[in-house]
């Protein structure tokens, strides 16, 4: 496995490489990331980027406490058969004088975007850069961050980036908790309590499958379950269109239930399609 | 010569084409455009795009009255040896649901950008799209639009687009008027009067060459000459850094004098390096 830090080097490694799969990550890898890797075996070469993107963090504190362990990540990536790890420094990605922001409009500003101003445009910007650096045929993202995928879809389509965005299922722990690098922040009690997010989402899905068609009624069911968990504090629950992320008053076709909640001081998100 | 309207077709034409030169234009071609073409012969294939980009116009009226003559443009492009003309419809470039804007920050907001809010981000957005569609090795722009080149440089560098931006000299009529598609709007009297822009810029350059180091003094000389032309109305004249387009109080190294003026109802811009 090659580990490269510079844009020039990664381009050199990929020159004439055949089909390329890209897995953009912020490191601190878990099984969810590895499941993306196994999907990327359909390409001749798989590149994994590991970069904690400062543009997508609202607060310096959240950026600084984001978990990092590059040595462990590289060992895991080697075992998993990644061909190239691209692990640039912040200065390589955002050198002095850097000024550009990719703004994807309304989809970046609603739902999760309304709670994290600038977050999704920061994601879109760094992913546009990664797409231009790696020029992948396909890029793989986990559905745990469903709105992120919708934002990247919008950006790539609008900017005519010839890359297929592959959305991969969320991997869950045995109690249903969606795998996330941030789960490491949970203490044992909080870790137990955190299962309430997926439990609540699944109950919401059950209600829809049983015939409930009101978005606010489904949100009420999900939120009600979270409120019974003393260690959890609901941020929001919404029933949204899975492409536009606009809230749905009534569920006719496809819908996604999205949730964010604090468990202790850790903010977690999750979602299910219904 | 191939004339293609769809993104898919232009990609098909360029698959395996060797080195590609791109000349982005809004059509209504003149000798300035043709001079870019002759520079692009260093590539295996030259693509010219002809697209009046709605994103970069502040008013619907300016967009609607922008001169167009595709048949004449295609005849000129054929004669000049263009390989592929990409002439998309607005719907091909900006389909329903399009939402993304590339914001290049301060350089888009000062000097000419301060007078045309949104203009340079509109330019940056459409050029980012064209770069992703055509994936050129080199792209050619005329220095008449000097700040546009600086904006595109910033965007391409920030977004890691692997394209060389080639700035080509402004072509001028025999009386010094910078060639521009908008010159067609000038009536014979205005056409004569329009030469005052370049005359004033050249006088400013002469002053710098004679030792004047004050930015505002040079701007005063240039502006004073324009004010003597009854048919012209100065919008602004500034002495700026040729990379950042920040105004210079004193001229130490390289500088660019930039000017915008109305001649009749037609707004013209020009610049000289000093």
What's this, in brief?
2 copies of one chain form a homodimer. Chain A is built from 11 helices and 10 strands.
Describe, in plain words, how this protein is organized in 3D:
The structure is a homodimer of 274-residue chains. The first copy, chain A, has 274 residues and is of the alpha/beta class. Chain A has 2 domains: 2-168, Rossmann fold (3-Layer(aba) Sandwich), CATH 3.40.50; 181-269, 2-Layer Sandwich (Pantoate--beta-alanine Ligase, Chain: A,domain 2). Chain A is built from 11 helices and 10 strands. In chain A, the strands form 2 sheets. Chain A has a 6-stranded parallel beta sheet with strand order 1-4-3-2-6-7, sandwiched between helices. Chain A has a 3-stranded antiparallel beta sheet with strand order 8-9-10. In chain A, strand 2, helix 2 and strand 3 form a beta-alpha-beta unit. In chain A, helix 10 (195-209) runs antiparallel to helix 11 (215-227). The termini of chain A are far apart. The model of chain A has no long low-confidence stretch (mean pLDDT 97). The A-B interface holds A 7, 11, 98-107, 124, 128-129, 132-133, 154-155, 158-162 and B 7, 11, 98-107, 124, 128-129, 132-133, 154-155, 158-162. Strand 5 (101-103) of chain A pairs antiparallel with strand 5 of chain B.
Write the layout of secondary structure elements.
The structure is a homodimer of 274-residue chains.
Chain A: E1 2-4, H1 7-14, E2 20-25, H2 31-39, E3 45-50, H3 60-65, H4 70-80, E4 84-86, H5 90-93, E5 101-103, H6 112-115, H7 119-134, E6 138-142, H8 146-158, E7 164-168, H9 188-193, H10 195-209, H11 215-227, E8 232-240, E9 256-263, E10 266-273
Parallel strand pairs in A: 1-4, 2-3, 2-6, 3-4, 6-7
Antiparallel strand pairs in A: 8-9, 9-10
């Amino acid at each position: 496995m090659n580990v490269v830090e510079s844009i020039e080097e990664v381009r050199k490694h990929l020159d004439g490489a055949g089909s390329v799969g890209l897995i953009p990550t912020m490191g601190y890898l878990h099984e969810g990331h590895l499941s993306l890797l196994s999907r990327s075996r359909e390409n001749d070469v798989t590149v994994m980027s590991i970069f904690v993107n400062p543009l997508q963090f609202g607060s310096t504190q959240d950026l600084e406490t984001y978990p990092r362990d590059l040595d462990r990540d590289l060992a895991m990536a080697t075992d998993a058969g990644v061909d190239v790890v691209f692990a640039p420094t912040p200065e390589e990605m955002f050198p002095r004088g850097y000024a550009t922001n990719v703004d994807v409009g309304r989809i970046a500003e609603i739902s999760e975007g309304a709670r994290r101003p600038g977050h999704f445009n920061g994601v879109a910007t760094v992913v546009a850069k990664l797409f231009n650096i790696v020029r992948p045929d396909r890029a793989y993202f986990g559905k745990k961050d469903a709105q992120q995928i919708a934002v990247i879809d919008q950006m790539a389509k609008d900017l005519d980036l010839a890359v297929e965005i592959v959305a991969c299922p969320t991997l869950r722990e045995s109690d249903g908790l969606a795998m996330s690098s941030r789960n490491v922040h949970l203490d044992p009690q909080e870790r137990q309590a955190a299962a309430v997010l997926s439990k609540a989402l699944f109950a919401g899905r059950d209600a829809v499958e049983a015939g409930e068609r009101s978005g606010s009624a489904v949100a009420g069911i999900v939120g009600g379950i979270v409120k019974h968990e003393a260690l959890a504090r609901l941020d929001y629950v919404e029933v949204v269109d899975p492409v536009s992320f606009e809230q749905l008053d009534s569920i006719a076709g496809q819908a996604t239930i999205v949730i964010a909640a604090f468990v202790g001081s850790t903010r977690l998100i999750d979602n299910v399609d219904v």
